[in-house]
Amino acid sequence: MIETKKIIEAAERHLEGSDMFVVECTSTPGNEIELTIDSDTSVGIDACAELSRAVEAQFDRDEEDFSLTAGIGSELKSLRQYRKLAGKSAEVLLTSGVKILAKLEEVTDEGITLSYEEKQAVEGKKKKQLVKVTRSYPFDQIKYTKEWLGFK
Question: 146 exposed, middle or buried (CB, 10 Å; 0-12, 13-18, 19+)?
Answer without folding.
Answer: middle
